[in-house]
């Protein structure tokens, strides 16, 4: 039997992305904006805090956004379809009313660093 400190070439081998090897694609959630129809869309803020400045434009009802991060009921997004700010923070529900609903996960661009 080999000693525990013996060289084992496969013990720490890692596969690194190389030419011809597909990178894993990150899964990201997409959300549809369902609230704000009576106000021309929902309020978007520049930061996560509810007291951060609001953007000049609202995010349109029916817009589809990509989730960048989720903190409780606050969603940081990137706009995929619809009108409004390209990025920002929204509330996904307020006073028990849904403003955005998760449509599920979709395949996005390769994760940074090939992870």
Query: Whole-number radius of gyration?
Result: 21 Å
Q: How many angstroms does the end-to-end distance come to?
A: 37 Å
The average pLDDT is 82
For the largest sheet, list the strands in their spatial order: 4-3-2-1-7
Strand segment count = 7
Largest sheet: 5 strands, antiparallel
Describe it for me?
This protein has strands at residues 25-33, 64-71, 74-81, 87-91, 93-94, 97-98, 100-110. It starts with 24 loop residues before the first strand and ends in a 5-residue tail after the last strand. Helices cover 0% and strands 39% of the residues. The protein is mostly beta strands and 115 residues long. Mean pLDDT is 82; it is low at 18-25 and 109-115.
Short précis:
By secondary structure, the protein is mainly beta. It has strands spanning 25-33, 64-71, 74-81, 87-91, 93-94, 97-98, 100-110. It is globular.
